[in-house]
Amino acid sequence: MKMKISALALLMTVALSGCTAQQTSATKPAAEPQKTTAAAQPANVQKRDLADGLYEMALSPKGDALYVASSEGFKDVQGGVVYKLDPRTLKTIGASHTDLKNFALALSDDGQTLYVTNSLDGGVSAINTADGKVKNRILFPERNDEGFPYGARQILLHNNTLYVGAVADPAIIWVVDAKTLKLKTRIKNTGKWMTGLHYSEKTDRLYAANGGGEILVINPRTNRVEHRWKPLGDKPALLLNIAEDSETGRLFVTDNSKAKTTLVLNIQTGEVIKQLDIGDSLSVKFNAKRNEIYVSRRDGGKVLSLDGTSYAVKQSWDLPPNPNSLELSADGQTLFVTVKQKFNKDHSTSGPDSVVRIDLNK
């Protein structure tokens, strides 16, 4: 019998990926396709079909492993996988098969622990990267009016503390000890649907985006909300992901579904410096090494490279149907993208999602 999923869980998945999904209780195993897509790509683009339900990525500190979170299928598939890929070839060099579905990732500074949000179950798992085993887990107790867990969306690691945003109304941010996975406290009064999380060394503040069009400025020493910015005023906005140019003090904030834009904000005041007219935007990265901004346009099927000063589009990569998450190498010369397939009416897809490697030097 299929497990009924709440509207909130659907909205959580929309906020994370720009698409809807359904969880089931059947246990049909998911196989990993091993072939690389044969579609023609530019010389600097390498694409590999990997698995259903790909979401966020994380690179190891040494740059020798790319971790990719997968929920696997939402139709007749229980659990998920975290894939470990060679960042140069995109070949699988490891895999952690998990009993829960995986979405967002954070990696410890020493590279020994990978933290993954189990969004549909309202929890976080800690995976030992040496053997791929789940070594610890926390499931949060909060439930919505229908009895379903709050969706654990984004995860941020700072100063041995995990900050986990809850997609709920009202939303909260769980504050968790990264070593023990014990809940330390909750940051409340964070608006509707907590989405993006970012820490700035420049200001020593957390920045949190929500579905009500707000950016919250939080002091991580006191876990108190110090400022609430609403950059688009009363206009509908579902702000998602955040990136920073620390040299110029700018925040880049995306909106995929309401305002369909990318905002450039003053990191000190929240003032709108620029509203980029590039269409819908989901994931965003700033590359200080090349002074470039990268934005995935999920609906538009493209990833854009913008000049970090003029905001002019320098390059556009066609990655249909739905480019999703972005990850940037430490040297700033390689960009990774997860590309999702469209969902059918029965919540299946026509093929596996993909991982793309873009050599920015070519």
Automatic annotation (TrEMBL):
SUPFAM superfamilies: C-terminal (heme d1) domain of cytochrome cd1-nitrite reductase. InterPro entries: Haem_d1_sf, Host-pathogen_enzymatic-act, PQQ_b-propeller_rpt, WD40/YVTN_repeat-like_dom_sf. Keywords: Signal. Gene3D superfamilies: YVTN repeat-like/Quinoprotein amine dehydrogenase. It comes from the Bacteria. Residues 1-21 form the signal peptide. This is SMP-30/Gluconolactonase/LRE-like region domain-containing protein.
